[in-house]
């Protein structure tokens, strides 16, 4: 999959949708259980913020260790929407740097083509948006092009056939998710690859 400024635009669209939803989220909604086993919606959002910070740091060529998602700092703070928006803006700024998308970035699992890394964090947030939707009842719109990219990236991330890269289903990916239905559409298949249970109405 070729990545250009279009993928930066897709990440921006996904993150803007999440920010708008989180701006409406109440403490009770964020405390609700999510499809991520053992995590409430706030935990999912916290993971997304930490993940965004990790990818942004890697795009700045700052070497990062594997995160311990079972023992996260509180990145959400007192303003969930602002905290998430800040982290998402960091991703956009880092990957927009001169020459970044033309090279590799030092991810915890090894050097990774920067375009793929950008698609990976976009796919992660697009699929976690569903976790937040299921937990909070809020609407988060994921556009068709982002859904397509999320599926393609999720498929690539678990494939052993990508030259020079191990499958990424590992401790870097976060918690396990519950799967109850057979996936059909694009977002549903991306959810299934990350062991989520997609609702029938999703693409």
Task: Summarize this structure briefly.
This protein has 203 residues and is mostly helical. It is built from seven helices and two strands.
Structural notes for this entry:
The chain is mainly α and 203 residues long. The protein has a single domain (5-193), classed as dinb family like domain (Four Helix Bundle (Hemerythrin (Met), subunit A)), CATH 1.20.120. It is 50% helix and 4% strand. The chain contains 7 helices and 2 strands. The protein has helices at residues 5-22, 27-30, 41-59, 80-95, 114-136, 144-157, 186-193; strands at residues 104-107, 110-113. Strands 1-2 form a two-stranded antiparallel sheet. A hairpin with a 2-residue loop joins strand 1 and strand 2 (110-113). Helix 3 runs parallel beside helix 4. The chain starts with a helix and ends in a 10-residue tail after the last helix. The relative contact order is 0.18. Residues 160-172 and 178-203 have low confidence and may be disordered.
